[in-house]
Amino acid sequence: MNNDEKPVKNAGNAFFAFIKKNLMAVIAWILAAVTMILVPPDGEYADYFDMKTLVCLFTIMLCVAAFKDLDIFSLLAVKLIKKLKNTRSLTFALVFITYFASILIANDIALLTFLPLTIAVFRGCGKREYVAATVILQTIGANLGGMIMPFGNPQSLYIFSAYSLTVVEFVSVMAFPFALSLVTIVIGCFLTRKEPAEVLVDEKREIPAWRPIVYSVFFVLSLLSVFDVIDKYIILAAVAVGMLFIDRKAFIGADYGLLLTFVAFFIFANNMARIPAVYGFVSEITEKNALLAAVLGCQIMSNVPTGIFLSKFTSDWQMLLVGTNIGGVGSPVSSLASLITLKTYIREFHGQGGKYMKRCLAYNFTVLLILTVACCFFFR
Predict the structure, then answer these.
(1) Total-model pTM
(2) By CB count within 10 A, which of 8, 121, 215, 335 is most buried?
């Protein structure tokens, strides 16, 4: 290969790596482009974008990226699990660390943080056979744990903003599915056999005390903009400038693919709502049962796109909110977090993908069925 071919090959590899990493954003933009042919850009496009969602999501992403770089969550987790002595308690700890962390740092970041720790823990104590069940429960927990607060899941943040909800309205609706998911995951953890296990994991590096304090302040400021206490653009400026001086790597760690996905689906959803035949058909479906429509939509096109899309066809924000959150479990595409776990497991345990997938689908659809049936009866 001559030197002229190497830059071309490297550019090609970088391009395909970008596509692979941001596949959802690429698909979203293809769909948006198709609808732009059907509904050519005009003055109404300016009103498509929910700037509060985009700005708040970006500032929260910066804070989460900064926290992730510190590895503070892994540090705390290691300190906890080193005190545990059996497989069941380890499963409980790893699953519920992920469950509650997803409220603060979103489900995908929680999994990226704790999945490697789970694999290392069970490998270190010679209990590799517990990895599959634990990471499946972790993924279910990550997808469901964040539902209790508006900033816990991206689709929740969007619905919270799009329907101008209050925190009380949001929590009052999500309290039942959150509590039920908690009970369901506890039962799943109790099914783990209780065997002696000695944890062998290295302590994480020490971190300067001032950094998590500063990042926590930025995170609280971001939440104040979510709840409309302080103008979102003031918070954006404060957090962005602060991170430029303190931790510029946070800008690299932010999930720009998710932001691009939101922008694309704003275009797609609004354009589809302007097509009379589509509007009438989807409105009829969501009018009959918005919860089931949301749950089924998540299984096909994931929870974030479903939330944005169906919001243009229904005023029943309660069922849309519940459906897009519990619908995050189920098929592998129901949530980006589920795909993260699948790819991680297949990479770490070659040749076991098929067996893992069968078990994963059994766990996920059992939980989804329980939550869907219970919520249909509870909210009728």
Answers:
(1) 0.81
(2) 335
